[in-house]
Amino acid sequence: MEPMHRIRVLLVDDEPHILQFLELGLQNEGFEVHTASNGASAIVEAISFEPHVIVLDVMMPGMDGLAVCKQLKEENRDVAIIMLTAKDEIEDRVKGLMIGADDYMVKPFSFEELLARIQARLRNQFPSLLGEIRLGPFTIDDRKTEIVYHGEALELSPTEYKLLKLLVTKHGSVMSKSNILNIVWDYDFGGEDNIVEVYIRSLREKLGDKEHRVIRTLRGAGYRVDLP
């Protein structure tokens, strides 16, 4: 698995052995992990640590997980919360999801399943943290240096990858040839600016963009990608 040093996970459970087991496992996977053993400390830790994902036990003395989930989601709707419970009851799951939980797991569970659910939440809510950006029909994956268009991976040279990534991430904005040269070929490029036209033509062929509807040419200005 790729290192995930930027991804923060908060574990909240009143059972020390569970916290220790999950903390060690997630740290070994490359996550930055903090723990809390009760609801009140979970609130404090979430404010200071700003986790991307919270694995939150429901059944805790004092402030239970449902109350913690409700408060945290009111303060930060973006945080992904996976609820843990020993109860296998539909009512509990529904209540947790209704107050904002993003996923639900019933104890006992395997570490592999929890890891898969954490990764699913990250792909859904924080794709850029995994080196993956989804923009319209494009998926840009810096880990693989790969761009997928309408579900098909494009065969791109390193320079084509940099150029298409630039145009897609700057979608809606016109990129002049000089800007493209400065960013893709860097400021030391001493060739002719028609190299940009050559690469744009190649990208259009690989995108099946015969009518130039994906990469548009604005005469005298440059190129622009418009996404739905």
From TrEMBL:
Q: Which UniProt keywords apply?
A: DNA-binding, Phosphoprotein, Transcription, Transcription regulation, Two-component regulatory system
A GO-annotated cellular component: cytosol
Show the Pfam families listed in the entry. Answer: Response_reg, Trans_reg_C
User: One GO MF term, please?
Assistant: transcription cis-regulatory region binding
Q: Which PROSITE patterns match?
A: OMPR_PHOB (PS51755), RESPONSE_REGULATORY (PS50110)
Mind listing where the DNA-binding region sits, in residue ranges?
130-227
Q: Any transmembrane segments, and where? A: none
Residues covered by the Response regulatory domain? 8-122
Domain of life, per the record?
Answer: Bacteria
Q: Name one GO biological process term.
A: regulation of DNA-templated transcription
* InterPro entries registered for this protein in UniProt: CheY-like_superfamily, OmpR/PhoB-type_DNA-bd, Sig_transdc_resp-reg_C-effctor, Sig_transdc_resp-reg_receiver, WalR-like, WH-like_DNA-bd_sf
All residue ranges annotated as the OmpR/PhoB-type domain in the record? 130-227
Q: Kindly list the positions at which 4-aspartylphosphate occurs in this protein.
A: 57
Name the UniProt record assigns to this protein: Transcriptional regulator
Q: What is the lineage of its organism?
A: Bacteria, Bacillati, Bacillota, Bacilli, Bacillales
